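A further point concerns the way the authors explain their paired sequence and structure data. An entry of this sort, consisting of the sequence and the corresponding backbone structure tokens, reads as follows:
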Amino acid sequence: LAFIDGFSEAVGGKTDPYEIAEILHDALLLRMTYAYQEDGVTPSDAPWAHSILGAAENGAGVCESYARTFQLLLNAYGVENIFISGTADGTPHAWNLISLGESGWYWCDVTWDDNIAENSSLATVSVYFCRTDTEQITGIGKEDGYSFLTGHTPDTADLPARAENPY
């Protein structure tokens, strides 16, 4: 509970789901780092790195920790969302789908945004935040026509219909 309360000042009295999600997304980017094994290349296989404990106790985790922590925080602040597992660029991965009310459902990958931020001079990045299925993502070294679902494949097709228009 103390971990969740640690975000309450940043969220304040906001009620707009987009604003809340953006604040929580950016706060996670500032508070977490990706957890690697001792070689500094291989993702950690420690149990804490795959759970909310990674974020809460160690400030680090792998994609599952980022996505589960984002899910917990969104739930705590009233933003409807779904934890998604699947593959990204052919590797097992986890991310989120969030509802922005009447605007619809959007994809969010906090882990990939953190990877970009950690490898740049930027504190936070929103490249993979609130994306549609087909919205073009540019400036990240990917080929023309790259979209969220070009790189991400959910394990299930049983998901709510996503927004068609960028937020």
